[in-house]
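Protocol step 6 of 9: fold each sequence in the batch and record its C-alpha cells directly after the sequence line. For illustration, a two-sequence batch is reproduced in full.

Sequence one:
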Amino acid sequence: MSTLAVNKRANYDYEILENYEAGLVLTGQEVKAVRAGQINLKGSYVVFHGGDHPQAFLINAHIGHYKPAGPLANYDPTRSRRLLLKRKELNHLFGRTTNEGLTVIPLKLYTKGSLLKLEIALGRGKKKYDKRQAIQKREWDRRRRTLTKQIRG
C-alpha cells in the first residue's frame, strides 16, 4: 500500500469522527495521472445525489492531464467523480450529513494491490479557537521535545 496523495488541511479544518474506504470511478488516463502523482485533494469534498438510493461524488479534486496520452478535448481536471461504497455505508453517511450537518471529506488516496482507494472521513468543522488550540498544542509538543533533548544531551 503506497500513499499517492494526502489532504493535509483536513485534520486542521475538521474534527475527524469516522473513517471509510471507498473506490473511485476514473478513466484510464486519470488512473495513470494519479499514479504519476498529478492529483491534489486540497479543497475537495464529498456530496450525495439521489433520493431513495443516494450516490456519493468526489467534488473539486484536481487530477491533472496525463501528458503521454496526448491532447484530450474537453477534459475537466476537477470534474465530479463517483465513489464506490457499500449501500449500508452510503445510507449511514447520507443520514449523518443531512441530519447532523456533518461533512464528508477525503483524507488520502492510496493503492491497495492494483486498485486505487480513497480514505474518506465524516468530520465536523472546527471553529477558529479550536484551530488555535491545535497550533498551541503542536508548538508546545515541539518545544518540549527540544527541551528534553537539551537536558539529555
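Sequence two, same batch, same settings:
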Amino acid sequence: MRNRGIVALLLAALVLAGVDHAAAGWRPVRPVTVIVPWPAGGSTDMTARVLGSQMERYLGQRIVIVNTPGAGGSIGMKEAWDRPRDGYTWAANSSTAVISYPVLGQLDITHRDWLYFYVLYAPNVIAVPSNSPFRSPRDLAEAMRARPGAVRVSSAGAGSSGHLGAETFRLVAGVTYRHVAYAGGAPAVVAAVQGEVEAVMQLSFEVAEMLRAGRLRALAVMSRTPLTMEGYGTIPSITQFFPNFPETGSYFGLMLPKDMPAEVVAAVEAAFRPASEAPAVRLFARQNGVAGVSISGRQAAEITEQKARRVAWTLYEAGLAKRSPAELGIPRP
C-alpha cells in the first residue's frame, strides 16, 4: 500500500510538472518588438511603454518599442500583420483605430483578425487653448453653427479616436467643423496648444500634461460621469450640455494576429495579467485620467465587437466610409 501511495504521488508530480511545462510553453530567447503605428508621445505609445516595461520581468526579455507612423496607423499595423508568426512581433493600438481601417478602406484586415490585451480605457476630452473664448461645449457648438466648416479641430488622423470624438460631437450637436489631421495624438494636441486649431478632442491621457501645465483648458469629458484628473481638477461630463451624448473613448493595449501559435498567446497572456495590474500601471492610469483594466481573450473580443457597431456606423454616417459596415458584417448599434 505504501509503495502504491509513493507511485501515486510520483505520478501526480509528473502530471503537475507536465502542466507547468505546458503552461510555460514558449518563452522568447531574444527581444520582442512591439510596433506602435503612431509617433512617440501619443496614447498608444505611452500605453505600450508603460505596459511593456512591466511585462519584461515576466517574459525575461526586453520589449522594444518601434514607432512606425503613417496613414492613420494602418502602415504599422500592416507591418505587424505581415511579420512571421514566431511571437517576436506584436502591435499596440486603440480599439477605435483597428475598427476603422477596413471601413476607411485602408486595410482588408478587420478587428476580428486580432487578439486583444487591453490595459487602459481612455475617454475623449474636449480641450481648447488656455486663452480660448469658449467656456463650454455649447460655446464651441455655437461657434461651429455661426461659422460652418471654419472652426478647426485637430486629431490624430482619419478614423482615430480623436477624429471619432469630433465626428460624434458634430452629429450630436448638429454642426460642421474643419478637420485638421496630424500624424498622431501628440502633434494634434501640440497644434491646439500653439493655436493652430481652436479645439482638440483627443483622449484624456494625451491632453493631461498640457491641462496640468495650463496650456489647454478642458470643456468636457465625453463620458456619462465627470472625470477627476490629478493635478488638474474635475472635468464635467458632456451629458451636462448634451444629455444624449454617447460614451466616447477607446481601449488601449497589445494586439496579436489571431492565428499566432497558441503557445505564444499563452505566454503573452501569462505575462500580461500580472503586468496589467502592476502598481506602476495603476499609478499611470490614475495620474492621466484613464481607467486601468485587464481585459483579454473572449471578453476583449466581445468588447471590440460591440464597439465596432458604433465606430463603424459613425464613420459611415459621417460620409467617411469607403466600405459599408453592413458589407463587413457589422450590424447597426
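Proceed to step 7 once all outputs are recorded. Observation for sequence two: The longest helix spans residues 2-24.
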